[in-house]
Write a structure and sequence with these properties.
The protein is an alpha/beta fold. β2, α2 and β3 form a beta-alpha-beta unit. The protein has 2 domains: 219 residues, Spore Coat Polysaccharide Biosynthesis Protein SpsA, Chain A, CATH 3.90.550; 71 residues. α7 crosses α9. It is built from 9 helices and 9 strands. Helices cover 45% and strands 15% of the residues. The chain has a 9-stranded mixed β-sheet with strand order 7-5-6-4-1-2-3-8-9, with helices on both faces. The longest helix is centred in the last third of the chain and has 35 residues.
């Protein structure tokens, strides 16, 4: 790829992936050679101490690498928001830390974004190297985004994305917990696109996303950024009310037409079970919304930065760590929202 004239911030959420970070940075450096200025922001999402030590070493080795350490594990998308807000280049690219998103595809993704005058572009794997349960859960999340948020390109969403950094201005305020970067990006633009890219198998470790966590994320996304579940509950309530009305008519009319009444207990038991199930489902949906309002009222932060690396006055990377890293003991900022 030729010189683009655009600076690129590569944001990588990091969680217990010490063994892949060195290879990841080397491959990013090789892929970005000659295409313009760039930086790599590694966001440590509450990993063990050795992960942060590796990030500090990489920051010392390369002036293009910056590390941000979160106070605890806030989740992948909260870490992404922290990295996006720290980006200093006009274009931001997000990649996973497991090397399943090949860094060599970053230039193609950025070129597609620029050439087609898009604001957001997703790298869609030509073949996903994941288990069946993971693919099904991911499909559910994309469907939730598509139907709940009105994102036409939601079926093409992935963790490998490129977008214009200025879109972050649309979600610069407080966000609370349970954020979704894909949902937040829809607040700032509707010019979306996708590009088929390579997706490599995982060579080390296992995914930190279990089926239960993926389902939880799908629920958080739909209840946090859409009223579709409430609308579905209303439709379901109308349907059961209509069923109840038809059942009542049948109970009243059948004796008049045939001279026999409707059997009592089986009919009553099935009807009560149906209505009770609908009521519990509706209460559960309302409870999800009330819980999110509760956490918003608590003003829990999306993330908190507990340490970061920065470029020192002499031009060398200087880790800033309140727990005792090298450099001056500068207290890192607390980021809310």
């Amino acid at each position: 790829m030729e010189e683009t004239g655009f600076g690129i911030s590569v944001v990588v959420p990091v969680f217990r992936s010490t063994s892949t970070l060195i290879d990841l940075i080397d491959r990013i450096d090789n892929a970005m050679a000659g295409i313009g200025p760039y930086e790599v922001i590694l966001v440590d999402d509450g990993s063990p101490a050795e992960t942060w030590d590796t990030i500090k070493e990489l920051s010392l080795r390369s002036p293009r690498v910056r590390g941000i350490r979160l106070g605890r594990n806030y989740g992948q998308h909260s870490a992404l928001v922290a990295g996006v807000r720290a980006a200093s280049m006009p274009i931001t690219v997000t990649v996973d830390d497991d090397l399943q998103n090949p860094p060599e595809e970053i230039p193609r993704l950025v070129a597609h974004l620029i050439d087609h005058d898009l604001d957001v572009v997703y790298g869609v794997p030509e073949h996903i190297e994941q288990t069946l349960s993971r693919r099904l859960a991911s499909k559910m999340i994309r469907t939730a985004l598509s139907s709940g948020l009105g994102v036409e390109s939601a079926p093409d969403t992935s963790s490998f994305r490129g977008f214009r950094t200025q879109i972050r201005d649309a979600f610069s305020g407080e966000l609370g917990t349970g954020v979704s970067l894909d949902a937040l990006l829809t607040w700032g633009s509707s010019r979306y696109g996708s590009l088929v890219v390579r997706h490599d198998p995982r060579n080390e470790g296992v995914s930190n996303y279990s089926l239960a966590r993926l389902l939880r994320f799908a629920i958080d996304t739909t209840t946090g950024y859409s009223t579709l579940p409430l609308q579905a509950a209303s439709v379901l309530g109308l349907c059961t009310a209509a069923f109840g009305f038809v059942a009542m008519v049948w109970v009243v009319v059948r004796p008049l037409m045939s001279g026999t009444s409707v059997p009592g207990f089986p009919f009553l038991a099935s009807t009560v079970a149906l209505f009770a199930g609908v009521q519990l489902l509706t209460l559960g949906i309302m409870g999800e919304y009330l819980a999110r309002m509760h956490f918003r009222i608590m003003r829990k932060p999306t993330y908190m930065v507990s340490g970061e690396t920065r470029v020192g006055d002499a031009g060398a990377e200087e880790p800033v760590d309140p727990e005792g890293g090298s450099g001056d003991p500068v207290q890192p900022p607390v980021v809310r929202g």
